[in-house]
Design a protein that fits this description.
Length: 152
């Protein structure tokens, strides 16, 4: 009898918290289902280098949505364009075109506030952007685990 785990492929993920000045990163995978803060970078070239060095299989970027977004489209502006800044959409487009791996997005509302609220000495804990990236990636991993167990 063949072990079911022989077909399991570990997928290494890079979580991304995009900001105009800094980009927070986190690492995780579908085996441990845990995201951890990694580092803060300033651009796509650094992300490309990390993807190669860390053997990343996919990227999960947080979509910057406004708190008032409910999923209802009121204007003639496409919903995605209405909710996200042009700068983020430009970043996302460049990221997708420069990487040979999947790039997915997930709602990132309140991740920076949650990062600030975590206990610990600010000098000792990971930076706000890295923790926000960790929360983005952890939300994604939790969602995928829930979906695979058909419990959502």
């Amino acid at each position: 009898m063949q072990n079911d785990n022989s077909k399991f492929k570990i997928i290494r993920c890079l979580g991304v918290d995009w900001g105009e000045k800094r980009i927070g990163l986190a690492l995780g995978d579908n085996e441990t289902k845990l995201a951890t803060p990694y580092k803060t970078v300033s651009g796509i070239e650094e992300i490309k280098k990390i993807v190669k060095e860390e053997k990343i299989d996919m990227v999960v970027a947080g979509k910057p949505l406004r708190m008032a977004d409910t999923g209802c489209q009121i204007s003639d502006v496409p919903a995605e364009r209405d909710r996200m800044s042009d700068e983020f959409l430009d970043f996302l487009s460049k990221l997708k075109s420069q990487l040979d791996i999947p790039v997915e997005t997930i709602d990132e509302r309140l991740t920076s506030k949650a990062a600030d609220a975590l206990p610990g000495n600010k000098k000792e804990k990971a930076g706000r952007d890295e923790i926000a990236a960790m929360l983005i990636l952890q939300n994604y991993l939790d969602k995928k685990q829930c979906e695979s167990a058909n419990k959502c």
